[in-house]
């Protein structure tokens, strides 16, 4: 059956014209206020991830940990990450974006509070597990809000702005938290994060108190002059969540995200230790050097989001603008990682390290924007939650496995080289497979065809029952 996708696109544009909010209209100042707060939300999300890596030498000394045990601590963050991503994401549309974001931030603050004082290995692991559970759905929340507020050609860039927080968090936190750790203790670093989180909740609550679309859908009809909930551009698709999970695009997104999260989890957990123990830099110097890949990542992320939108406006397919583009960036990161394990210490190796660790977030903005090109709004939390459940496995396995490899090697430098070589190869393989599988236009055609068959079956059953 042939599906007229172009006609549907034209209908979307017509429906969107004149709306104050939603796809098809210009970006308003109100949108950027929300995006700015989500950027700060994601910044804190990654600042607290980075804190444990920056504090690694002090944590290891205070608790008497070896590399394998520290890898286990880093891995514990992801043990409940997937569970939180799926379970909590399904509640988002029920309680609304405003409450979801505020409650997540308060949960982060509560989970970090025990680390503001001297603690034990057990408390540290439990704290990281709880934090991971409540941070699991953060990306679902942010990308769902972006998909609600921006048209397809603007969605990747807006998502990239929010995801820039994954780099801005460690970029801003690294020198500040390193100074706090060296001046006072690693416990003081978490006290700073607790205070920043509470401040964010207050600002978010004040700014979004009258923002349309932030509350639970259907509970508060818009007042005169206030924007209504935007129409779902894919509301004509009627399929179940399991049907969405059978799409090639689902597995393409999952593989691209898995490749990106291999980089993310190792950057957060091991990059400071690698620079210190593997490359020989002092802890104070590491506090500066670790900001380099995060700083470059902001530029790469925004450039990738802009380029994806530019490709769509130039008439390129969503498959090229989302899947192939993301795969290309990730393959570059994988090759750079392979290369820095083969060259001697020095400026070239540092440049390759910075390049390899600056690409990861592209998978979570450009590629995820491809899902919004075919995904009905009601299925976004569950769909994205399942993707997070897949890629969180990278966060469980990679930090712990790298720690074991470092412990087993003759020297830390040799262990890091062996571990990163394997990871670099894996990144390239997952990126190529994911880029080939992600095809938003084809997925939309498949879903529309499934919807037609389902409606025909219902009509046939009704006709049979009427006889």
UniProtKB/TrEMBL annotation:
A Pfam family in this protein?
A: MFS_1
List the subcellular locations: Cell membrane
> Which one of the record's GO molecular function terms can you name?
transmembrane transporter activity
Q: What is the lineage of its organism?
A: Bacteria, Bacillati, Actinomycetota, Actinomycetes, Kitasatosporales
Q: Show the SUPFAM superfamilies listed in the entry.
A: MFS general substrate transporter
Q: Which GO terms describe its cellular component?
A: plasma membrane
Alphabetically list the UniProt keywords.
Membrane, Transmembrane, Transmembrane helix
Every Major facilitator superfamily (MFS) profile domain range: 34-442
User: Which domain of life does the protein's organism represent?
Assistant: Bacteria
Q: Does the UniProt entry include the keyword Metal-binding?
A: no
Q: Tell me the membrane topology, using the record's own terms.
A: Multi-pass membrane protein
Give me the ranges of the annotated region Disordered.
1-24
Protein name, UniProt field: MFS transporter
Sequence intervals crossing the membrane: 32-52, 72-92, 99-117, 123-146, 158-182, 188-207, 250-271, 291-312, 324-343, 349-371, 383-405, 417-438
């Amino acid at each position: 059956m042939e599906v007229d996708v172009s006609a549907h696109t034209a209908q979307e544009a017509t429906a969107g014209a004149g709306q104050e909010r939603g796809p098809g209209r210009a970006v308003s100042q109100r949108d950027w206020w929300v995006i700015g707060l989500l950027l700060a939300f994601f910044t804190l999300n990654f600042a607290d991830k980075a804190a444990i890596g920056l504090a690694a030498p002090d944590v290891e000394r205070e608790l008497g940990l070896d590399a394998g045990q520290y890898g286990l601590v880093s891995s514990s963050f992801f043990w409940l990450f997937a569970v939180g991503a799926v379970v909590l994401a399904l509640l988002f549309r029920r309680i609304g974006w405003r409450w979801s974001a505020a409650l997540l931030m308060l949960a982060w603050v509560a989970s970090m509070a025990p680390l503001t004082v001297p603690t034990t290995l057990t408390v540290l692991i439990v704290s990281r597990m709880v934090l991971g559970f409540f941070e699991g759905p953060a990306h679902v929340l942010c990308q769902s809000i972006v998909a609600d507020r921006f048209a397809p050609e603007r969605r990747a860039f807006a998502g990239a702005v929010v995801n820039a927080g994954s780099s801005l968090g460690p970029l801003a936190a690294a020198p500040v938290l390193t100074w706090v750790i060296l001046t006072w203790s690693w416990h003081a670093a978490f006290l700073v994060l607790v205070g920043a989180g509470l401040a964010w909740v207050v600002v978010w609550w004040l700014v979004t108190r009258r923002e349309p679309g932030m509350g639970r859908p259907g509970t508060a009809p818009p007042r005169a002059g206030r924007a209504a909930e935007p129409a779902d551009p894919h509301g004509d698709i009627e399929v179940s969540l399991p049907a969405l999970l059978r799409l090639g695009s689902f597995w393409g997104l999952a593989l691209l995200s898995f490749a990106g999260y291999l980089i993310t989890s190792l950057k957060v957990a091991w990059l400071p230790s690698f620079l210190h123990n593997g490359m020989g830099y002092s802890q104070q110097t590491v506090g500066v050097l670790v900001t380099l890949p995060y700083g470059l990542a902001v530029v790469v992320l925004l450039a990738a989001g802009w380029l994806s939108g530019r490709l769509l406006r130039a008439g390129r397919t969503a498959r090229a603008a989302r899947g192939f583009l993301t795969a290309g960036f990730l393959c570059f990161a994988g090759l750079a990682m392979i290369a820095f394990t083969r060259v001697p210490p020095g400026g070239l190796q540092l440049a390759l390290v910075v390049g390899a660790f600056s690409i990861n977030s592209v998978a979570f903005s450009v590629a995820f924007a491809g899902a919004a090109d075919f995904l009905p709004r009601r299925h976004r939390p569950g769909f994205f939650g399942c993707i997070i459940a897949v890629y969180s496995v990278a966060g469980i396995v990679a930090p712990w496995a790298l720690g074991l490899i470092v412990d087993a090697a003759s020297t830390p430098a040799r262990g890091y080289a062996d571990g990163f070589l394997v990871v670099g190869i894996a990144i390239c393989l997952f990126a190529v497979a994911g880029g080939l599988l992600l095809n938003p236009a084809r997925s939309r055609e498949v879903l529309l065809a499934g919807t037609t068959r389902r409606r025909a079956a219902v009509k046939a059953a009704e006709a049979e029952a009427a006889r």
